[in-house]
Amino acid sequence: MATQSPAARGLIALALAGVAGLAAWSGRAAWEDSGAFALLLFGVPLACAALALLAESAGAPVLAPAVVAVLGAASVGWSLLTGLGLGPGLLLPSLLLLVAAMISWMDRRRDRARRPPDTELPGKPPTSR
Predict the structure, then answer these.
(1) Which long-range contacts (CB under 8 A, 24 or more apart) does 71-78 make?
(2) On the CB side of 88, how many CA atoms lie within 13 Å of its CA?
(3) How far is the CA of 69 from the CAs of 24, 27, 66, 128, in angstroms?
(4) Are 86 and 27 spatial neighbours (Cβ–Cβ below 8 Å)?
(5) Closest CA to 55 of 4, 94, 14
(6) Which of 25, 92, 94, 116 could form a disulfide with 76 if both were Cys (CB 3.0 to 4.6 A apart)?
(7) Distance in angstroms (rounded) separating the CA atoms of residues 18 and 87
(8) Reduced to 3 states, what is the DSSP secondary structure of residue 124?
(9) Which candidate, 121, 100, 113, places its Cα nearest to that of 6?
């Protein structure tokens, strides 16, 4: 079974903390300026980072890096869409999600290369030769 990537989880947690910090720092001003849209403004990147952390912690061998990459791309798109406001502040955590996806993929690929060829994965039927 593929191991989880501690480096990717750390980057995702850093991205989550960055978005939460930006929301705490400028949330009041965003609320006064945009009203309830401020919840959506910060909610999309927060949800992407939280779901990415959940996907990476679940440890699915192939699916986790792909889910983190899709969520990172969605977060980058959202930060570019809101680029005239707080979008540039949301861009760095979004890019961290994309870097975390690459690191997660490389760690899982390295783990797969280290496994002996005749090692069976749990849940898969043995291959007959």
Answers:
(1) 71/97, 72/48, 72/96, 72/97, 72/98, 72/100, 72/101, 73/98, 74/44, 74/48, 75/44, 75/45, 75/48, 75/49, 78/44, 78/45, 78/48
(2) 2
(3) 26, 27, 5, 35
(4) no
(5) 4
(6) 94
(7) 13
(8) coil
(9) 100
Structure tokens given for 95: 């890019």
**Is the CB of residue 49 less than 8 Å from the CB of residue 75?**
yes
CA 30, distance to chain mean position in Å, is 24
36-87 per-position pLDDT tens digit? 888 998 999 999 999 999 998 886 677 889 999 999 999 999 999 988 777 7
DSSP code, position 115: S
pLDDT at residue number 71: 95
User: What are the helix (H) ranges across 1-129?
Assistant: 6-34, 37-58, 63-81, 87-114
Whole-number Å distance between alpha carbons of 102 and 95: 11
CA 26 to CA 123: how far, in whole Å?
A: 48
